[in-house]
Amino acid sequence: MSIHYHIDHEQRLVIATPREVLTDADMFDYQREVWSRPDTRGYNELVDMTGVSQIEFASADRMTELAALSKSMDSPSASTKLAIVAADNLHFGLGRMYETYRHLEKKGNKEVSVFRTRREALQWLGVGSR
């Protein structure tokens, strides 16, 4: 998996840093591995895309499927946030697309927003620098 992640239990935050080529399979694997863990329930999430050089999705439908899977794994008892950091215009646009798909899903309670810098994302999440 080309997505490395760190779980900061003190700040109740999962920090994911994809590298180089990011595929839909990587995203699905990350989603299932991290968000099926009982110790991440109710945690916020930061996905920092600045290390990604290329994104490969099999089809646009895969992003819809990923949004549906992600929503189904949201903590039912806590509202949480997902901040996506994307300095690259294409990655920013894809992040906004994912944000839209998440909002279109009926279930779930994770607010999604896309930022150009990690600093802005951390401020929105209400956590200190990492």
Indicate the radius of gyration in whole angstroms: 13 Å
| Integer average pLDDT | 92
Largest sheet: 5 strands, mixed
Number of helices: 4
Strand order within the widest beta sheet: 1-2-4-6-7
Approximate helicity band = 25-40%
Oligomer designation: single chain
CATH level-3 fold name: Transcription Regulator spoIIAA
The low-pLDDT segments are: none
Number of domains: 1
Number of strands: 7
Structural class: alpha/beta
Task: Write a structural description.
There is one protein chain. With 130 residues, the protein is of the alpha/beta class. The protein has one domain (3-125): Transcription Regulator spoIIAA. The protein is 38% helix and 29% strand. The protein contains four helices and seven strands; from the N terminus they run βββαββαβαβα. It has helices spanning 24-35, 60-72, 89-104, 118-125; strands spanning 3-8, 13-18, 20-23, 44-48, 52-56, 80-85, 110-115. The strands form two sheets. A five-stranded mixed β-sheet has the order 1-2-4-6-7, sandwiched between helices. A two-stranded parallel ribbon has the order 3-5. A hairpin with a 4-residue loop joins strand 1 and strand 2. Helix 1 packs parallel to helix 2 and helix 2 crosses helix 3 (89-104). 30% of the residues are buried. The model has no long low-confidence stretch (mean pLDDT 92).
